[in-house]
Amino acid sequence: MGAVYLFADSLSLEQANSLFCLGPGYQSYFVHDSGSTLPDGYKKHLFDGRLSSVLVMAYCPKNCHGQLCLNSPSKVPSTYFVQVPHAVMKEGVEVITTHSIHNSLRSVGGIQILLPLFSQLDLPCEDGTAMDGDMWYV
C-alpha cells in the first residue's frame, strides 16, 4: 500500500503534475516542503496551503500500526466524518517499506560480503566456456 489522499476539491493540472513528480515515496500532508527536492515551480502548486486545506483524509504507510492506518491530515477538526476516520487494512494488504542503501547492504552482511562477488563476474563457467557478455544486454 502506498500513500492514499482524498481531496474535497478537484486538482488543477499543475497540482496533479506536481503531485506525480513527488513520486510514490512522498508520505506527508502538503504542509511544508522540507522533505521535497522538487524545483520551486512545482513546490508553489503543492505547498501554498491550498492542498492541505482541502485534504479530507490521508493514509500513509509510515503511519500504520499493525493493520490500522491512522488518518492524520493537517486539519484537526474534520467536518467530513462523525468519528475519527482511521482505516483497517484488509487481509493480504502489506505496507510498503523503504530502506536506505546503507541499511540494505547491512542486511546482507555489508559491502565486505558483496565485493568478492564482483571479482567472480568474469570467471569461466564450470564447463570451461567463458560467459557471453552479450547476454546481459536487452
From TrEMBL:
It holds the Pfam family DUF4704. GO terms for molecular function: protein kinase binding. GO terms for cellular component: cytosol; membrane. Residues 80-127 form the DUF4704 domain. Signal peptide: none annotated. InterPro entries: BEACH_Domain, NBEA/BDCP_DUF4704. It comes from the Eukaryota. GO terms for biological process: intracellular protein localization. This is DUF4704 domain-containing protein. It comes from Strongylus vulgaris (Blood worm).
